[in-house]
Amino acid sequence: MIDFFGWEMPVEYSGIIEEHMAVRTQAGLFDVSHMGEILISGKQALDFVQYLTPNNAGRLKPNRAQYTALTTPQGTFVDDMLVYCFNEESYLLVVNAANTDRDYEWVCDKQKGFDVLVENQSAEYTQIALQGPKAIEILRPLTKIELSELKSFHAARGSVAGIGALVSRTGYTGEDGFEIYTQSEESVEIWEAILRQGDGYGILPVGLGARDTLRLEATLMLYGNDIDETTTVLEAGLGWLVKFKKGDFLGRESLLKQKEEGIQRKLSGFEITGRGIARPGYPVFVEGKEAAKVTSGTFAPYLKKSIGLAYLPLEASETGSEIEVDIRGKRVQARVVPLPFYKRND
User: Fold this and answer.
1) Is the Cβ–Cβ distance between 154 and 165 less than 8 Å?
2) Which of 65, 205, 68 is nearest to 129 (CA)?
3) Is a pLDDT exceeding 80 seen at residue 10?
4) Is there a contact between 281 and 308 (Cβ–Cβ < 8 Å)?
5) Taking the CB of the first residue and of the last residue of the chain, which one, N or C, has fewer CB atoms within 10 A?
6) Where are the beta strands (DSSP E) in 172-238?
7) Which domains does the chain have, with CATH numbers?
8) The pTM is what?
9) Is the pLDDT of residue 285 over 80?
10) Contact predicate 297/249, CB 8 Å
């Protein structure tokens, strides 16, 4: 157990590799109650969300979600997050634990001129994530929600193990699965019911260690490593979530200018071809000169290779480009590869 931004969290239950492989091949259960929840409500809730984020929240219908970001005027990240539409006057921002208080202050600071109410409801929510190819089989007997009809990034209200919940087909592992939100104090019963139901399916509880290796294999961003207030949405390879045609939003002009002028660096994936494991902060060399640092790096249990991410100069970001990573004082060969590193077969 470690302190994780004020939460006491398990790094592992039975072992990082074992937990990682359970999620890829069977199922894993995550306690992600540390995530923050900020509710925006009122007549101008949609207008406010549109202003705060680069994605087009106007396309959301009730009980649907989208991946997006809180952006600065410079087009960099305050945070990345999910936005849920409950109705046209109610939106839930699900933000990172490390940034919850800061995100709440940021949103409150920007609400002047909008007829909205902003509430930090993080302490009221419990969130549990069931991920893996067996997730739907495990959860189905515990709810009356038609899980097979629930599309990706769609949600439904109902109950799980007899407890009121919002169930969404989302996750942070690269696998199919569900995230279960409840405001009930009985949420531990949902956790225990899922573990009991999944016992015959090889389910394992999963800690922070495998959560990180899983998301990196699937090339899902980690705030503070791969994205922050020094990296723009376009540099991070997330240009697909920027909808310039929707109208004004924080960072629009900066991102539009960068798009027109072209980015100078790009978040790129690489695999180590020599010996060693790239870790965050390790220097990356291009043609003998230090050009970047590893933002995320690990040994990928499912892929069985050492992988990493770094903001490489554009000319070095092409697939097949040879680079070097300084691992404990020794430069080790690496090669730029396509992203994502891992994508499940549907």
Assistant:
1) no
2) 205
3) yes
4) no
5) C
6) 177-182, 204-205
7) 2-34+125-217 (3.30.1360.120), 36-123 (3.30.70.1400), 264-337 (2.40.30.110)
8) 0.96
9) yes
10) no
